[in-house]
Write a structure and sequence with these properties.
The protein is mainly α and 801 residues long. The chain has 38 helices and nine strands. A six-stranded mixed beta sheet has the order 1-3-4-5-2-6, sandwiched between helices. A three-stranded antiparallel beta sheet has the order 7-9-8. 50% of the residues are buried.
């Protein structure tokens, strides 16, 4: 019961508890997954569908070139957001104005990966529609779903997940029962409570009966095992007997498994104190999990004081009704707050309790107000240290934030508070890569409010900012015109300054430099006068961006302004605008002809983005680095950087064209220079070597490219290349050797061939090539095809010497 399921890449088999048994199930499902593009693991709640899916994916993920990815749907309440949830799991930032399904279709079209969509039953029709569309456009996609009912779409392969095998009374009387998976599970979980717990001749019969009466359902067995903190095996068996008699009228044999699980949850409820039951119900307002502060603030009132929440929460954890998700590794060392969550079954049960208590509206309002305050704190403290930590915290609470916005939008009288929350989440939308969600909620909530309040005014310019970054200048214009009207009606110069600020960006994106520079200047003056340092720093680098293209004198002024902003950011401990200021500094330096300084500025910005991962700043900076390298005549490196930037742009569904004709013009000029200098064949080789890197990989490629370490950055040349790229030799790990076929495939990789090309050359299947490449990566301890290619060429150089 202590395994954790979160959306994102599958790193390996769950390791919070051991995986018990299921050998036949793993064998059967691996065979099905090898032939079916959609496999649904079907069964009642608690039967172990999620755990089996993760184990199956962990054992199969090497057969998928682009990995296995978990999409957790339990916390999702709106089926229309499934596409967005998949995009989030794939770490595909929400930046474009296209629908999530359109972006997913483009992203998945040429990829070979496995999507594990967990807990589909409450959204089964919407899941079926999304999965059908994605399978149609992405031939390399396979989907593994867990559900209580099938999706019922063409091509779906169903696998009924059985309960764990339980021994009969006869087996328990005549033989050891250790071979039964349900018994192994019960013993394993009992030993987590009492390390000395043993299966003996005295308790064997009771253990067998417990596994029988719980129908071998893993969740039920784990819940029962947790009671061994206070009960003996015999007492546990007696208590189960009485409880099931009460719920089934004595007819144990006819009990459906779902009813059995319900009975066990009912029993868990009966074992809780009234205060524990109440907290259990109140915690259901956190669909995305929660930390202790949130639980105390939202649930600590009335019959439960804030000071009682921690002890009650601890009791619920010990009874396996709440899961503690302890941060590990670097997250633990960074001091990240521990989070908690309820399993879906218990959250569903608790929601019924909450509804019966009549506290639902009060709890939802308290939850919304809690995150409203957190968002306000994020804005007020953003211009200072720990921006990345605040951003990470908002990302962890994303499902809770959307839940708060949904309640505000659907509850009369709460719409304005919802719009205020959406506006205060501006850094979560932009720096956190969630622009599509931000746009959706700001449009919806602004349509529900009409009063010209200061809160509406701030929501208007915040919405305009989102529109602009998505490339929707017309939508931004509408919001900014109303923002000016509200500012005039209220005689609010600060609100008017924000309208100037974002209207200046609209002019910049439209190519109108002079009005943009003037309006930025007016906004900066007001921001400074009222002490809004964050808004001032944003406007400073944006004005310098416009100045970079307005002639030498302007570019010099913009560079000086950025250098001052960088110094100011350093004094404040602020990193977000510092990274952007480094990017614009490089832009200005390039226009002034100081190319080496430009590269240094770009690398400084990317060093920040290693931890921050603002996709927009990353893509802009790498693109600018490509232009700089092309200006220096380093066309191999320029082409590599450009292709890495393009991958980041594609990752969030937009292009540099959305940011105005000046940047787009630089990009097109760089492409032309690279193609003229290297030729189409060489550019194609570079493209094959670079591939489609993630944002993190693109940053590493760009930094190595610019610094001269070309292990990844400079693709290897072919004999026909006019400008051979630098190489790097990688050492072969001691005792490692490749087979003749693996050596052959490594050589073909070094020539820029794709797996499909290699398959054609060697007359073998692409899947066989995939397997060989995975083996080579594993043997050499590498993570990319480019590293294999560099290693292969390095071995040839050693032999020649």
């Amino acid at each position: 019961m202590n395994h954790t399921t979160v959306s994102g890449p599958l790193q390996g088999a769950p390791d919070l508890t051991s995986f018990i048994g299921r050998r036949d199930e793993i064998t059967a499902t691996r065979g099905l997954l090898a032939h079916a593009r959609l496999l649904t693991l079907l069964g009642p709640g608690g039967v172990g569908k999620t755990r089996l899916s993760l184990e199956l994916a962990a054992r199969s993920r090497k057969t998928f070139r682009d990995g296995a990815w978990v999409v957790e749907l339990a916390a999702l309440e709106d089926g229309s957001l499934i596409g967005s949830q998949i995009a989030t799991a794939l770490r595909l930032p929400d930046q474009s104005n296209r629908s999530p399904l359109e972006r997913l279709a483009d992203y998945l079209r040429d990829r070979q990966l496995l999507l594990i969509m967990d807990n589909c039953e409450h959204l089964v029709e919407d899941v079926a529609d999304v999965v059908a569309q994605l399978l149609e456009v992405a031939p390399g996609l396979r989907v593994l779903t867990t559900s209580r009912e099938p999706l019922e779409i063409l091509g779906e392969q169903i696998y009924l997940v059985p309960p764990l095998a339980a021994p009969s009374d006869s087996a328990a009387a005549h033989q050891s029962i250790e071979a039964y998976d349900s018994v192994l599970l019960l013993i394993d979980r009992a030993r987590s409570i009492d390390p000395e717990f043993q299966l003996t001749s005295h308790n064997q019969s009771a253990i067998a009966q417990i596994c029988q009466r719980l129908d071998g359902i893993p969740l039920a067995i784990e819940l029962a095992a947790s009671r061994l903190r206070s009960l003996s095996i015999t007492e546990l068996l007696k208590r189960l007997d009485r409880r099931f008699d009460l719920l089934t009228g004595g007819n144990r044999v006819a009990v459906p498994r779902q009813a059995t699980l319900r009975a066990l949850v009912d029993w868990s409820y009966e074992l809780c104190s009234p205060a524990e039951r109440l907290l259990w119900a109140r915690l259901t307002v956190f669909p995305g999990g929660f930390d202790l502060e949130a639980a105390e603030e939202v649930c600590g009132f009335g019959e439960i004081s804030r000071g009682e929440v921690l002890d009650l929460l601890d009791h619920l954890i010990s009874k396996s009704l709440v899961v503690a998700e302890r941060p590990r590794g670097s997250l633990a060392r960074s001091g990240q707050q521990q989070r908690y969550r309820q399993l879906f079954t218990f959250r569903e049960y608790g929601a019924e309790l909450l509804e019966a208590s009549g506290e639902t509206a009060d709890l939802r309002r308290r939850q919304r107000d809690h995150y409203l305050q957190r968002a306000a704190d994020m804005v007020s403290k953003w211009c200072g240290p720990d921006q990345a930590g605040r951003l990470a915290a908002a990302r962890r609470d994303h499902a809770n934030l959307l839940s708060a916005l949904e309640w505000s939008a659907t509850t009369p009288g709460e719409e304005l508070a919802g719009a205020t929350l959406a506006a205060l989440l501006r850094y979560h939308w932009h720096a956190g890569g969630n622009l599509s969600d931000g746009r959706r909620w700001m449009d919806r909530l602004l349509a529900l409010t009409q009063e010209p309040t200061a809160e509406r005014g701030n929501a208007l310019w915040s919405a305009a900012w989102v529109c602009l970054v998505q490339g929707d200048r017309d939508g931004a214009k509408v919001y900014l015109e109303e923002c000016r009207q509200v500012a005039e009606l209220r005689n609010d110069p600060v609100l008017a300054a924000h309208a100037d600020h974002w209207d200046a960006l609209r002019h910049l994106f439209g190519g109108d430099l002079e009005p943009a520079i003037d309006m930025f200047g007016s906004a900066i003056a007001v921001h400074r006068r009222v002490g809004d340092t964050m808004s001032a720093l944003i406007a400073v680098f944006q004005r310098a961006w416009a100045q970079a293209y307005a002639g030498r004198a302007h570019a010099e002024a913009g560079l000086a302004a950025c250098q001052g902003a960088i110094a100011e950011s350093e004094a404040l401990g602020e990193l977000w605008t510092k990274a952007y200021s480094h990017w614009v500094s490089g832009l200005c330096q390039r226009h002034l002809g100081d190319l080496d300084s430009a590269l240094n500025s770009q690398m400084a910005g990317l060093e920040i983005e290693r931890d921050f991962l603002d996709g927009i700043c990353t893509a802009l900076t790498i693109d600018d680095m490509a232009w700089t390298l092309a200006a220096k005549g380093q066309f191999e490196q320029a082409g590599t950087a450009h292709l890495a930037a393009r991958s980041v742009w594609r990752g969030f569904g937009t292009s540099i064209a959305a940011f105005g004709p000046h940047l787009e013009g630089d990009s097109l000029q760089t492409i032309n220079l690279v193609q003229q200098a290297l030729g189409e064949s060489r550019v194609a080789q570079i493209h094959a070597a670079v591939g489609e890197p993630s944002e993190v990989e693109a940053i590493e490629i760009a930094l190595k490219n610019a610094s001269g370490a070309t292990e990844v950055a400079a693709p290897l040349h072919s004999p026909s290349s006019q400008q051979p790229a630098p190489r790097i030799n990688l050492k072969t790990p001691a005792g490692v050797s490749l087979t003749k076929r693996e050596q052959q495939i490594a050589g073909l990789l070094s020539e820029g061939n794709t797996n499909k090309d290699i398959a054609g050359t060697l007359v073998i299947s692409p899947r066989t090539v995939d397997g060989h490449v995975e083996n080579i990566l594993s043997k050499l301890g590498f993570t990319s095809r480019t590293q294999i290619a560099a290693w292969y060429v390095g071995q040839g150089e050693k032999a020649a010497n």
